[in-house]
Amino acid sequence: MDYGLWVMDYGYEINFMSERKSILKDDSYKFAITIIKLYKNLIDSKREYILSKQILKSGTSIGAMIREAQNAESTNDFIHKLAIAQKECDETVYWLELLKDSDFIELNDFTRIHNDASSLLKMLKSAILTTKQKTHNP
Q1: Fewer Cβ atoms within 10 Å of its own Cβ: the N or the C terminal residue of the chain?
Q2: 21: buried, middle or exposed (CB in 10 Å: 19+, 13-18, 0-12)?
Q3: What's this model's pTM, rounded to 2 decimal places?
Q4: Cβ partners under 8 Å of residue 29, min gap 6
């Protein structure tokens, strides 16, 4: 079964079942690296251990679930894995907002990371919607 789909909103192809590069996969990996660096900074500079651990878990889980979607056993499994990635991304936004509002991260860092998370969230929502539409309207 081919889970490849064309996401018109963003003008690029997301094809999890092929060897082609996926913007969603690549961006989520880069985002995870950013989150790891943020975590290290929070631990080293701010001595913040609780919120930083939460954002580390949710921020790195996004890409892991997107990778798991590559090995989905069915269309429903594929959608389910992307939905988990979407929830993790939304949770990451929550932790980012808490970190900003509690003065653990600067506004410019927050804005940059928040924009990346929002972009991932939009791509995930679009991929889920498009897959559902293709499934129900072949």
Answers
A1: C
A2: exposed
A3: 0.84
A4: 63
> How many structural domains is the chain composed of?
1
Here the CATH number for the domain that contains residue 101 is: 1.20.1440.60
Residue 74 belongs to a domain: yes
Domain that holds residue 39: 5-13+31-136
41 within some domain: yes
Whole-number Å distance between alpha carbons of 53 and 67: 22
**62-114 tens-digit pLDDT:** 999 999 998 999 999 999 999 999 999 999 999 999 999 999 999 999 999 99
**64 part of a folded domain:** yes
